[in-house]
Design brief:
It contains 3 helices and 4 strands, in the order βαββαβα. With about 90 residues, it is of the alpha+beta class. The longest helix is centred in the last third of the chain and has 22 residues.
Length: about 90
């Protein structure tokens, strides 16, 4: 099992667009992927689950993967979230 934590930096938090991109990437991996905020753990391949986290700016999210290519999955998902946040911050300037 591999897990890493990231803090949401985007002023809009994780809304529908980043959640959809997260699910699309997570679904490419055969491993089980969970996204955790506080004590709520949801399926990382479910857009409704991710949206239910209500991850606003400053939230700490843990991405946990278990199975085939779990380390690669976690690293790519962390990078995706970091890049989504950077892209959105630039567009708000």
């Amino acid at each position: 099992m591999t897990e890493k934590t990231i803090q949401v930096q985007n002023i809009s938090g994780i809304h529908a667009r980043p959640a959809a991109r997260f699910v699309k990437l997570a679904s490419q991996f055969q491993c089980q992927i969970k996204l955790i905020k506080d004590n709520l753990e949801v399926d990382g391949k479910s857009i409704l689950g991710i949206m239910s986290l209500a991850a606003e700016k400053g939230s700490k999210l843990t991405i946990k993967a278990d199975g085939e290519k779990e380390l690669e999955a976690v690293e790519q998902l962390i990078n995706l979230l970091k890049n989504i946040f950077k892209d959105e911050e630039k567009s708000q300037i």
